[in-house]
């Protein structure tokens, strides 16, 4: 770690490299490069961020409200306050949800979401993002509409499986698409914009669902059905609009509705090839694709993302309970007091990503966020004054949510090859699904009022992430040193160096 810290002071060489990369393109004016990047930002980061919002809202509009947590925790455990209004609006009675039926509806989504990650990224590459992403979003919008029309919970089980399959292709394909358009020194703030924009807007999904539930009786439909019907229709509308806005991979950009001029496309591809030389897509071979699993680094990248997801899910589920039961706030106040935490997380995460891109380092920010996660858990779980405990919530949410886009950037910066990039994107997002399962079940009613096992789980997740990042970054530092001495070729490309 001492060597890593010393290396931070030697950024002049890195800055010269970035400057050369910016200027080493076939355009006469750097302003044109910047204009091209702004076009890409609008058509990728913003559009995907809005679609990710629809994904999050659709995924969390099923479960229970904070007011019903204690009644259901014996069969399922604590579930998120955002995931509330459909259940409360009458779904439990109408669909005769007895015993473990409700927990099955919640959890059945995740196995399909995890298992279908690898094939979905391959299909996205074959069909091209514009067709694929708009297609699967339309499909899951129809599935959400179906949620509002079913007459039994067994029928909804099948829909939950389909939802997991269709959503499996979204996030990993978005991550893959983002990393394909930007050089490594630019991708952190784009990942942050995509993820944090979607997460921030989706934080108001509970308010939307609450308003829709008040349509109870309109058109002869119960309020919980309107939640699914209208949110599904909104999702389909987003998908249809996105079909005309989403862009394909750089080598296919000329097919994306005159998105960029030929000279702009050439400039983008030149920059990418000079950065990592992996724009050209090689023929897909299943054996070669699966052999990417032998690269140990990919599993460390997946661990970073999955463990950060454990904390983000856990806090999302646990915080409303702490605010209401532990700090004595009303249910409405608990919902409102959660929002500033996520606003702060968005500000911190985006600021870190901008600085991270500027100095070309990821590790210090990942480690810093792990540290403030641990401090936040300790403060929230063990402090006595309400104000101080609430401050702890800010730290946990900020650290965990900021590490999500940074984890995506960390892996994207240190792999090469179209299919390896696709495999890695699928792997880390699948790990995030596993983190979602763990996070949704870690705070249990029987552990009240201290919830020690849940707190220990969050601390452990942050600490293991810290160790994982230190391990890979130390390896990257050593390999970069050997590369500089001419002893190794990294990732099969002369001159390529890891970014830590």
In total, the number of domains comes to 2
Class of the largest domain in CATH? Mainly Alpha
CA distance, first residue to last residue: 12 Å
Name the CATH superfamily classification of the largest domain: MFS general substrate transporter like domains
Helix content: over 70%
Give the percentage of residues in beta strands: under 5%
Structure description:
The protein contains 22 helices and no strands. The radius of gyration is 23 Å and the shape is globular. The longest helix is centred in the C-terminal third of the chain and has 33 residues, at 452-484. The model is unreliable at 1-28 and 63-85 (pLDDT under 50). The N and C termini lie close together (12 Å). It is mostly helical and 500 residues long. It has 2 domains: 29-276, Up-down Bundle (Growth Hormone, Chain: A), CATH 1.20.1250.20; 299-484, Growth Hormone, Chain: A.
Question: What labels describe this entry?
Answer:
Growth Hormone, Chain: A, transport, 22 helices, single chain, transmembrane, globular, mainly alpha, 500 residues, membrane
């Amino acid at each position: 770690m001492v060597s890593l810290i010393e290396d931070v002071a030697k950024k002049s060489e890195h800055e010269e490299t970035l400057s050369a990369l910016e200027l080493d393109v076939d355009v006469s004016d750097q302003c044109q490069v910047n204009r091209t990047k702004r076009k890409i930002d609008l058509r990728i980061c913003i559009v995907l961020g809005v679609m990710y919002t629809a994904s999050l809202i659709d995924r969390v509009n099923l479960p229970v409200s904070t007011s019903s947590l204690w009644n259901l925790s014996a069969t399922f455990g604590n579930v998120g306050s955002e995931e509330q209004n459909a259940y409360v609006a009458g779904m439990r009675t109408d669909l005769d949800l007895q015993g473990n039926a409700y927990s099955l509806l919640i959890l059945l989504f995740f196995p399909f979401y995890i298992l279908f990650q690898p094939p979905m990224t391959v299909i996205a590459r074959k069909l091209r993002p514009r067709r694929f992403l708009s297609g699967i979003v339309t499909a899951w919008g129809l599935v959400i509409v179906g949620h509002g029309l079913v007459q039994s919970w067994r029928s909804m089980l099948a829909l939950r499986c389909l939802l997991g399959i269709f959503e499996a292709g979204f996030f990993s394909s978005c991550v893959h698409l983002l990393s394909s358009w930007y050089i490594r020194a630019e991708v952190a703030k784009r990942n942050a914009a995509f993820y944090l924009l979607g997460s921030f807007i989706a934080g108001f999904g509970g308010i939307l669902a609450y308003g829709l539930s008040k349509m109870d009786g309109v058109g002869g439909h119960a309020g919980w059905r309107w939640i699914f019907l209208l949110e599904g229709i909104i999702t389909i509308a987003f998908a249809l609009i996105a079909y005309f806005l989403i862009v394909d991979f750089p080598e296919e950009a000329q097919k994306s509705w005159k998105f960029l001029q030929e000279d702009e496309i050439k400039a983008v591809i030149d920059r990418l090839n000079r950065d990592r030389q992996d724009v050209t897509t090689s023929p897909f071979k299943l054996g070669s694709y699966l052999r990417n699993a032998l690269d140990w680094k990919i599993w460390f990248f997946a661990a970073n993302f999955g463990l950060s997801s454990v904390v983000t899910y856990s806090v999302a589920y646990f915080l409303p309970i702490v605010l209401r039961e532990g700090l004595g706030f009303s249910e409405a106040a608990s919902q409102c007091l959660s929002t500033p935490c996520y606003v702060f997380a968005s500000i911190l995460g985006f600021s870190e990503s901008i600085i991270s891109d500027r100095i070309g380092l990821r590790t210090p920010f990942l480690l810093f966020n792990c540290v403030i996660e641990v401090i936040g858990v300790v403060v929230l779980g063990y402090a006595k004054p309400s104000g101080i405990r609430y401050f702890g919530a800010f730290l946990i949410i900020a650290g965990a949510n900021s590490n999500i886009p940074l984890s995506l950037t960390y892996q994207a910066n240190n792999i090469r090859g179209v299919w390896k990039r696709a495999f890695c994107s699928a792997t880390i997002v699948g790990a995030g699904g596993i983190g979602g399962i763990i996070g949704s079940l870690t705070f249990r009613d029987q552990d009240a009022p201290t919830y020690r096992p849940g707190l220990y789980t969050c601390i452990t997740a942050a600490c293991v992430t810290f160790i994982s990042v230190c391990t890979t970054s130390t390896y990257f530092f050593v390999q970069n040193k050997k590369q500089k001495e001419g002893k190794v070729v990294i990732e099969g490309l002369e001159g390529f160096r890891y970014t830590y």
